[in-house]
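Reopening: M3 family oligoendopeptidase still failing for me.
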Amino acid sequence: MTQDLNQNYYKELIDLQDVDGVEAQIQSLLDVQIESVSDLEKWLQAEKDLMMKIAEAMTGHQVDFYRNTEDADIKSTYLHDQQVIQPLLMKYEAKLNQKVCESPYFNKLDENRYGLMRRFRESKVKLFREENIPLMVKEQELNTKYSEIMGGLTVEWDDEEKPYPFIQSQLDHLDRAVREKAYRAMMSAHRQIKPDMDAIMDELVQLRHQIALNAGFENYRDYMFVVKNREYSVQDCYDFHENVEKHIIPAWNRLANVFKSELGVDTFRPWDNTAKLMKNPPYSDVSDLMNGVSEMLGKTDPYFADRFDYMREHGLIDLGDRKGKSPGGFCTSLPVSGDTFVFANFSPSFFSLIALIHEMGHAVNGYLEFSEQGPSEEYHLRMEIGELYSHGMELLLLDKLDRFYPEEEDFKSAQREELRRAFKMLFGPLSGDLFQHWMYTNPQHTAKERDEKFFEISKRYGLNPVDTSGLEKEIGMSWADTLHYFQVPFYNIEYSMSMLGALQILENYRNNPEQAVVSFKKGASANYNQSIAAVYKETGVSFDFSEPAVKRMGEFLEKVIQDIH
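Support: Ran it again with your exact input. Result attached.
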């Protein structure tokens, strides 16, 4: 099914090409006199209204570009936003934050409503440096270049030029020879783009290190902890790394032996580590995928299906692979419209099915929050919370995978595969977090050292039970396949933390399905001015990644997998 890329799915209520007009509207906010708490609240609302208009237009332009990186006009519009509007916003954001923070009424704002916003603004005032604006613009330009390279990446397959996601989907094939062929084709593609990837990452690391130095930090890692207003420390992250290595990796090794036995292979090679035991891809075209996911959502809760069907009807979902489309998948908010948009670039595979369900967890969270709390603001978007509902949605739909896998054995295999994914989400993103800790605390590292460190960390975690002999260099360079390292640095560990919460959602669902869904919806619509722990509590789970918590959920996950056999 070909989707209409011209369908209007966002509201363009401000002309971002009129730079003087945009600047005049922002400047008018600075000119307002604030003489009471009431005045300040009215000013904050006016600021929000303007920034939401700008955010929706910029988000729409970005999604347009990701959907078609080869269209010159779309790219021009997107680059204008990044090179002209974004620097303008950075400049005025600092002035707006300073105006608010210096107001004598700032600390008199209601804590329950404005507390989180106050903390975010105070940290932004502390971090802002005028000299970092051009560095951040250059950072965005490099990320755009990465999207272009990956969006245009194709691979020769049986004498045909295929999009990169198609080759990724072949890692699901039952035939081991096909899986190996796909894996080696992907590695060949990596080698072709590696010089570009190394150059981009080398420059990003240096830019980000300088941004941190300018803001008074020793390294970019420490800077990002303040930027993200994390409610945990660097040491907490290192402890989490160790807890998972101690309690999850041994369980992962035991599970890998089970998969190795089911595959009937003597050695567990990288292309076996991706294998699915279901006979066929879960769907043949995008319409089949959307019909089935709608049914699965509806069986879980009518509201979930209602939101999905609404998004489908209004052109708010773009699935399937095509040349020129940026890689990966995401869900993003359109704050003026009150909508969410789901983007994915995948060929038919088990992973693409789960990815859509995952992104719908984000979408449902977005719609519930909007209906209860109003438009999402930047300081609401704490990924430890957002990923709880995406992973949680995956596990709430675990018992409905028979919609795509009606045969009993395939259904069991699909459930085991989703639970294996849960295992991998406990250590995969976490190892990526450790990789970034190393990169940014060792900013003078070489490309060769980066590859070697990535391989070393991979072997400690996900590839621990895998025979990687002869593939060390290929695995070492495969970090370039992860867009998070380029475009959203230090957005990794949140996946692993939230998976611990999502497993608790599954535990609750197995005990009382109706109550688990009620709690899921309550947490997804909660007041995000609370702490992360408080929002988790409203969802019926704990925000806990201590050693006892990691050990308990690892044991629970292993037991659930055993129960399916």
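The chain has 21 helices and five strands. If you still see a failure, please send the error message rather than a screenshot.
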